[in-house]
């Protein structure tokens, strides 16, 4: 294999979920692209990496000081949905069902990875709650051990704001799941969070 191809494959393999074979397919696809398209791809990646900022209010990705969501006057400013990462925010936005604001933590508490509460944007969230404008906080983070740890830590911090209602997204058996294949923790959440029909 040529050194140039090997270098491109090695760099592509640094991306999550990209193994050797996928990296080779991507490299060969890039090679078949028009030179202008390949240049546009590489310059877009470089511009993105150098010019992207984090919203000063919610920690979402933005080209400006405030992201389009925070600067949208039509959003319900009394509700904040807490998510781990920007990808989670995008998933919720794609449903078209939520019209409040967000707060991106930037991860979850994970002692194994050296991530503690001070590494997350929890203080920024508390600063927003001090304004008194927020009436509800929705916690929408993963049900992993790290996610649960983060949720319990958040709940302890949010006790300082007794006027703010704290909720979490529903957890349990997914639509279309067969009960015999669902893990015990998920079934436990489903039973604890049951609701009348």
Helix content: 40-55%
Mean pLDDT across all amino acids = 90
Terminal Cα span: 62 Å
Going by CATH, the architecture of the largest domain would be 3-Layer(aba) Sandwich
Biggest beta sheet attributes: 4 strands, parallel
Shape annotation? globular
State the total count of DSSP E strands. 6
Task: Provide the low-confidence segments as ranges.
Answer: none
User: How many helices in DSSP terms?
Assistant: 7
Number of domains: 2
Order of secondary-structure elements: HHHEEEHEHEHEH
Strand content: 5-15%
CATH topology of the largest domain: Dna Topoisomerase Vi A Subunit, Chain: A, domain 2
Task: Return Rg in Å.
Answer: 21 Å
CATH top level class name of the largest domain: Alpha Beta
Q: Structural class per helix/strand content? A: alpha/beta
Query: Biggest sheet: strands side by side, in what order?
Result: 4-3-5-6
Keywords for this entry:
197 residues; alpha/beta; Helicase, Ruva Protein, domain 3; Dna Topoisomerase Vi A Subunit, Chain: A, domain 2; four-stranded parallel β-sheet; two-stranded antiparallel sheet; 7 helices; 6 strands
Give the structure's gist in a few sentences.
The strands form two sheets. Strands 4-3-5-6 form a four-stranded parallel sheet. It has a two-stranded antiparallel ribbon with strand order 1-2.
């Amino acid at each position: 294999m040529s050194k140039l191809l090997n270098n491109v494959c090695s760099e592509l393999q640094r991306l999550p979920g990209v193994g050797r074979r996928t990296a080779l397919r991507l490299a060969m696809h890039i090679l078949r692209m028009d030179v202008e398209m390949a240049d546009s791809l590489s310059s877009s990646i470089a511009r993105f990496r150098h010019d992207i900022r984090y919203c000063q209010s919610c920690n979402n990705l933005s080209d400006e000081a405030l992201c389009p969501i925070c600067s949208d006057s039509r959003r319900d400013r009394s509700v904040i949905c807490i998510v781990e990462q920007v990808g989670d925010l995008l998933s919720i936005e794609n449903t078209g069902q939520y019209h409040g604001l967000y707060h991106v933590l930037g991860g979850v508490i994970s002692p194994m990875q050296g991530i503690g509460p001070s590494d997350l944007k929890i203080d920024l969230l508390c600063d927003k709650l001090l304004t008194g404008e927020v009436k509800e906080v929705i916690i929408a983070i993963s049900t992993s051990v790290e996610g649960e740890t983060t949720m319990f830590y958040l709940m302890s911090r949010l006790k300082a704001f007794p006027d703010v209602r704290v909720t979490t997204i529903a957890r349990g058996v997914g639509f279309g799941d067969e009960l015999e294949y669902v893990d015990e923790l998920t079934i436990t959440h489903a039973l604890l969070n049951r609701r009348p029909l």
